[in-house]
Each structure stands twice: as structure tokens, then as C-alpha cells.
Automatic annotation (TrEMBL):
Keywords: Hydrolase, Metal-binding, Zinc. It comes from the Bacteria. Its cofactor is Zn(2+). Signal peptide: none annotated. InterPro entries: AstE_AspA_cat, N-alpha-Ac-DABA_deacetylase. The keyword DNA damage does not apply. This is Succinylglutamate desuccinylase/aspartoacylase family protein. Residues 18-116 form the Succinylglutamate desuccinylase/Aspartoacylase catalytic domain. It holds the Pfam family AstE_AspA_cat.
């Protein structure tokens, strides 16, 4: 029987000239390993002298959640990429990771967090809010995130994560729950905060790159090129280290605006949805166990439809075109 992991493996390359401090993470969800494989190749190239770090500090964490990775599933005891903060008292394995991960994040200027997704579709990036001084997610790094996301080579960029979560959590708080730790976590106002949101709370910038479907054979190369393009963007590698991204057209930018929870395991989708499938106003998305139809409130896209979601957690998201301008 495998024992519970007791450490995180962290690799760091310190340039001899001062510069940005970049953190790259993968397997925050244990079965999402495109970034894990990409980092192995990046480290090989650095160690062999095929890549030269010009300046700054590069920190690589190939497996952020070793318990979930060992179990080959998304979570260990719970979802590490929600409720991420240093715990006062550690109550689960992910809390113990947070004790190490949160200070590590705070030591860096920015994070590239590499993920993958369940359904089919091309890679896409997720970025933070516009510059603002509001209560939910005050931020001043909009220009950096927009420019870097545009340089990564994806055809789609998504914004609006934390503000969308706030809507969903408000609904959850209106529902009664059983008083369990799980129920408390998913209705906590902090629930939408993961690696990138925590980085922004420290004043840094953050990009989530969804590198494709979990088993997409091209995923590790998508992740590797993203790491190299980020390093070039930051001036940490020579531009010759990677082919520049020359898009035929600018990326599509979408804004998440709502998240719909599954209420019962009997809730069923009307069809097999994939992320970014188009939906029309009034279109049937699914049916509740009660027989109630779940209809699209407006035209847009469905994002992260999850047939495996548990009652009380995210079933799917809704997105619409954004007016955000990229460099």
C-alpha cells in the first residue's frame, strides 16, 4: 500500500543576473500532468545546456498535489485549487500543501499554472480581472497578463473567474447544508481562490493554461512551448529558444458570467457538451432530477461541462464575448 506523501519536489534555477521570479506549477489536480511532463523536458534542456537562463529565478513544481497524483485523480482529500490559503490548523492533506505552497507563491512575481480538462477541445488561457481597487480581487497587473496570454499561442482567452464564483457561492449560502467540512468549504466566500488568485492577492500576475484534454498527446508540447514563451516574454531566455507565436488572427476573448451547480446526481445534460460549444437563448442545456429544464439564459458558450460533478459543486459555466482588448 502506498503511503501518504510527505514532501513537495521543488526545482529552482537561479540566474546569475537579477531578474523576474517565475513559478511554474502542474498537477495541482493530480491527474493533469501535461505540465509535469513538459517540466521534465525543460529541466533536461537546462541541465544539458540546451537552454540558458539569462537572468532571474525559475522555480518548477511538477507535482503540486502528490497525493492526488499518486491516486491518479483530481483531488486527494479535497480540491487544492479552491480555498487556497495558509491554514490555521491543517485539517486535510491539501491544507498541509497550502502551508508550503502559499509562501512559495508569495516569493515570486508571477505564476504559470498548467492544467488540462476532461472534455475535448484546444488549449486556452485564463487570466485575471481588469485593473481595479475593489474588495473582491483588487489588481494592477492587467497589462502584463493580457500581453503574456496573447503571446502563449492559444486561440482563446477567458476572464471572469472569481467574480463568477462569487455569484455561485452566494446561491450556495442560501441553500441549507449538512454542516460537514465539505459543505462548509464549497460555500465559503474564499472557495474560488486557487493558485492564480492567491498569486494576485500577493500583488503578482498569474496565468492558468489549460493545455488540452487530459490524455491529449500534444498537451505536453503545448505546456513546454508555453513555459519557453513565458521565459522569453520575461527576458529570462533568449528569443531564439522558441519559435515566436504568429497567430493568423487574434485570440477570441470570452468572459465567464455564471456558474451553475449540480443539485442532484439525477441532474443530466441534454447532450454531450464540450467546452465552448455555442448555446442560444432558451436552449435546453440539461434537466434536473425533478424534471425542471435548465435553459440557457442568453446566447454564448458553455464552459467546463462536468458529467462527473457532485451535488453542490460546479456543473457548468456560462461565458459570453468580452470587450477586453489585448496588446
Amino acid at each position: 500500500m502506498s503511503s501518504t506523501p510527505t514532501h513537495l519536489r521543488i526545482h529552482q534555477y537561479a540566474g546569475l543576473q537579477p531578474g523576474p521570479r517565475l513559478l511554474v506549477t502542474s498537477a495541482v489536480h493530480g491527474n493533469e500532468i501535461h505540465g509535469t511532463r513538459a517540466m521534465a523536458e525543460i529541466m533536461r534542456q537546462l541541465d544539458a545546456g540546451e537552454l540558458t537562463l539569462r537572468r532571474g529565478t525559475l522555480t518548477l513544481v511538477p507535482i503540486v498535489n502528490p497525493l492526488a497524483h499518486q491516486l491518479n485523480r483530481r483531488e486527494g482529500d479535497r480540491n487544492l485549487n479552491r480555498n487556497l490559503r495558509p491554514p490555521v490548523v491543517a485539517q486535510d492533506f491539501e491544507d498541509r500543501i497550502a502551508r508550503v505552497l502559499c509562501p512559495l507563491i508569495a516569493q515570486h512575481n508571477g505564476i504559470l499554472d498548467l492544467h488540462s480538462f476532461q472534455g475535448n477541445g484546444p488549449a486556452f488561457a485564463m487570466i485575471g480581472p481588469r485593473n481595479n481597487s475593489g474588495e473582491l480581487e483588487p489588481f494592477a497587473q492587467e497589462a502584463t497578463e493580457s500581453a503574456l496570454a496573447a503571446a502563449l499561442g492559444v486561440t482563446r482567452i477567458v476572464e471572469g473567474w472569481l467574480s463568477t464564483y462569487a455569484l455561485g457561492i452566494a446561491r450556495r449560502q442560501q441553500r441549507s447544508h449538512d454542516g460537514s467540512r465539505r459543505a462548509s468549504l464549497i460555500s465559503d466566500p474564499h472557495y474560488g481562490v486557487g493558485t492564480t488568485e492567491y498569486m494576485r492577492s500577493t500583488g503578482g500576475w498569474a496565468i492558468t493554461l489549460e493545455c488540452g484534454q487530459h490524455l491529449d498527446p500534444n498537451g505536453p508540447e503545448v505546456a513546454r512551448l508555453a513555459i519557453l514563451r513565458t521565459l522569453v516574454f520575461l527576458g529570462m531566455l533568449d528569443a531564439s529558444a522558441v519559435e515566436p507565436h504568429r497567430p493568423a488572427q487574434p485570440p477570441e476573448v470570452l468572459q465567464l458570467h455564471d456558474v451553475i451547480d449540480r443539485e442532484d446526481m439525477g441532474d443530466q445534460f441534454a447532450r454531450e457538451w464540450a467546452s465552448f460549444d455555442a448555446i442560444e437563448t432558451g436552449q435546453l442545456i440539461g434537466t434536473r432530477a425533478s424534471g425542471e429544464a435548465v435553459l440557457a439564459p442568453g446566447a454564448g458558450r458553455i464552459v467546463f461541462p462536468n458529467v462527473k460533478s457532485q451535488p453542490g459543486t460546479e456543473w457548468f459555466y456560462l461565458a459570453r464575448p468580452s470587450d477586453r482588448q489585448l496588446p
